[in-house]
Amino acid sequence: MRPDVLRWVIGLAFVGFGLWTLKPDTLEGEPDVRPAGAFVTTLVAFFLAEMGDKTQLATIALAARFSSLPAVILGTTVGMMVANVPAVWLGDT
């Protein structure tokens, strides 16, 4: 893909994500509540909250910049784990 086309695609993606955040969430019907521990609940909430956020976009940009895709994925994953695992453990207590 040409660099100028890639810039437009990335720019439109950022605008799209921004517009998506303006749409409020809605609940229809009764929620299906299942008992789970704090760790499982936090893990699922973290996974859902992180979908399409800036760290994923940064990972994509780094993977496009550097040739070692496994190293980029490993580095960003370890960075997120170092930042979030203590919060999950503290939340469990």
Task: Give a verbal description of the structure.
The protein is mainly alpha-helical and 93 residues long. The chain is built from four helices and no strands. The longest helix is centred in the C-terminal third of the chain and has 24 residues, at 69-92. The model has no long low-confidence stretch (mean pLDDT 85).
Oligomer: single chain
- Taken in chain order, the helices and strands follow as HHHH
First-residue to last-residue Cα separation: 48 Å
Mean pLDDT: 85
Please identify the structural class as seen in this structure: mainly alpha
- Radius of gyration from the CA trace? 17 Å
Strand content: under 5%
Q: Give the number of helices.
A: 4
Helix content: over 70%
Beta-strand segment tally = 0
State the main characteristics:
flat; mainly alpha; single chain; 93 residues
Write the layout of secondary structure elements.
Blueprint: H1 3-22, H2 38-50, H3 54-65, H4 69-92
Helix pairs in contact: 2-4, 3-4
Task: Report a brief summary of the structure.
The chain has helices spanning 3-22, 38-50, 54-65, 69-92.
